[in-house]
Amino acid sequence: MSWLEPVRVALDEGPCTVFVRADDAGWGDERLWALLDLFDRRSLPVDVAVIPAALHPALAAELTVRARVGGVHLHQHGWAHVNHEPVGRKCEFGPSRPYEDQVADIARGRAVLGDAFGDLLDPVFTPPWNRCTSGTAAALAACGIAVLSRDSTAAPLDSPVPEVPITVDWFGSRKGVRWTPYELADRLAAAVRSGRPVGVMLHHAVTDRGELTALGALLALLSTHPNVDAIPLTTLAAVPG
Questions:
Q1: Residue 197 — left, alpha, or beta (φ > 0 → left; ψ -120 to 50 → alpha)?
Q2: What would the pLDDT profile of 205-220 be if each residue is shown by its tens digit?
Q3: Which of 47-61, 172-186, 227-241 has the lowest mean pLDDT?
Q4: Residue 156 C-beta-side C-alpha neighbours within 13 Å
Q5: Closest-CA residue to 200 (of 221, 177, 176, 226)
Q6: Number of neighbours of residue 91 by Cβ within 10 angstroms
Q7: Which residues of 17-44 are buried (b: 16+ CB within 10 A; e: fewer)?
Q8: Average confidence (pLDDT) over 17-45
Q9: Residue burial 212-234, b: 16+ Cβ < 10 Å; e: rest
């Protein structure tokens, strides 16, 4: 696809490490399977952020099969993906929530996912809406979670837990207007040229057939370009996965 040419040119300039994080497992299962099938066809890894309160037996069983085959990596996405802030931007683990409440939700989410996935569960936490506080980071450490993944534009935290941020939102927008494919490609190319790992964030629940086609083109490029090293979050963070 012509819109991907800036990304291809940027990749030609040197090596690039890439990971992909797919959020909101627990919503829109059929679209999740369609998304994960794309990665499977290209033998590319993908980190799936699972909402503990939305996990159900059929979802757990299918994710377990896909994770055991390889390529799908599972981690925790908050607790219920609900907003607790009375004003301002949405946040499940925000300044309105006491530390004790945050620890409780993180711990019970970890327990739910641990019961479902066992050793397939990675010690990674993605907060809903990519937002949390330094108190959240302390709570993660207390719960034995080794990696926090937010957006690279998020305000720095006083955190005992290292971060592996995403750098490009597939559904990114400016002033409420979605990026065009060419704007998305320009952002991907800029992320490649930054010299830092490129993290791409996906949301399967809003990924329709057209989006899948475009994403498939990107994955085809990533899987065939000699300068791309596609890895999971835990490898990037040097955490056993």
A1: beta
A2: 999 999 999 999 999 9
A3: 227-241
A4: 1
A5: 221
A6: 22
A7: bbbbbbbbbbbbbebbebbbebbbebeb
A8: 97
A9: bebbbebbbbbeeeeebebbbbb
Closest CA to 150 of 127, 176, 184: 127
Q: Is the pTM of this model over 0.90?
A: yes
The Cα–Cα gap between 139 and 133 comes to: 10
Q: d(Cα 185, Cα 183) in Å, to the nearest integer?
A: 5
- Of the candidates 35, 36, 44, the residue with the CA atom closest to the CA atom of residue 66: 36
- Say if residue 239's pLDDT is above 70: no
The pair of three-digit structure tokens given for residue 231, joined into one six-digit string: 């890895």
How high does pLDDT run on average in the chain? 95
83, containing H or E segment: none
CA distance 13 to 2: 18
Q: Which two tokens stand for residue 195?
A: 């010299």
Q: In a 3-state reduction of DSSP, which class is residue 125? A: strand
Rounded Cα gap, residues 111 and 128, in angstroms:
18
C-alpha 28/C-alpha 26 separation (Å) is 7
State how far Cα 197 lies from the chain centre: 14
Structure tokens at 110: 């970890």
